[in-house]
Structures are given as structure tokens and as C-alpha cells.
Amino acid sequence: xxxxxxxxxxxxxxxxxxxxxxxxxxxxxxxxxxxxxxxxxxxxxxxxxxxxxxxxxxxxxxxxxxxxxxxxxxxxxxxxxxxxxxxxxxxxxxxxxxxxxxxxxxxxxxxxxxxxxxxxxxxxxxxxxxxxxxxxxxxxxxxxxxxxxxxxxxxxxxxxxxxxxxxxxxxxxxxxxxxxxxxxxxxxxxxxxxxxxxx
Length: 199
Hints:
By secondary structure, the protein is of the alpha/beta class. It has helices at 14-22, 43-53, 72-87, 106-118, 135-145, 163-173, 190-197, and strands at 8-11, 27-30, 56-60, 92-95, 122-125, 149-152, 178-181.
């Protein structure tokens, strides 16, 4: 098992990022509106986090709560937010575009990956992957599109419950895309999830 462990904390704002830094985290996923499942953070918060913590910051790009099938106006907003975050210090972005049938929105995922990579950032497809009807087909598409990392709870509400699926994804695809377990991971179960999944 690869023991080169990197700890990412899902952060709901500046104070969370400071706490993550103090706790020894390597990276944060920065969100706004945590109560809504995490939405796009503001640029002033991003800039202050980068200035004061020096952490690697993956910023969420999500314009609203609910599903991940967006209309044309929402997509326009997302790409504008993405560009703004990248130009103001984000090390990468977490995003997810799905079609109405739950499959990966190839066109907009490709456009987002290209935008992120132009800014030398990390492209992370978030837990929208967990509501796709065929996770294997979805991960293969993300690999083909050049996505760097996929955040998943193994299509369960919590990563511990989806650990078998996460382990399988790691075994099959882990040499081509980084698999990042997320949702419900804490000090009490992180070691168990690592043992079960290898990530």
C-alpha cells in the first residue's frame, strides 16, 4: 500500500483553513455555504487563506445547492467564477457537470479541465460522480478528459460505507487518476478507510 499520505480537509471558510493548517493538513478544499453542501467561495476568502496559511487550496465551483445538471446561465457563471478563482491564487478547482440522465457532461467537463490546466491548476471532479448511473464508465471518461483527481464516497452517503467501491476504483484506475475518498471521514475512521481502500 502507498503510505505517502496527504491529508486534505474540506473547509467551510477562513477559520476552517487556519484550523486545518494548525492540525497539519496538506491541502484544503475551500467552500462557501457549507450548510448547503458547499458552494463557490469568495475571492477575498481565497486570497486571505493563501496569504495567511500557504496551504494548497482547491476551490469549489458550484453555483447552487441541488443537483449537478446546470442550465446555460449557471454554466456561464461557473466558468467566470472558475477563471476568477484561478487568477487569484487557487491551486485547482473542484467541479462537476452532469447531463440530465446523470452521465458526465463531456463538453463542459472538457472546457473546465482545459481552463484549469491553462492556469497550471489541478482539475478535481467532485462527488457528482457518486450520482452517476455507471461509475466505471464515468471515471474512464474523466481519465480520457484529463481530469487529475476524482473525489468520491463510493456512491454511498459516507466514504466508510462506500469503501469497497473506492478500493475497486483505486485498484482499476489509480495509476491513471488520483482517487480521493471524501464524506464523513474523521479522526475516528480515517485509518480504517485507508486500510480498506489503499487511499
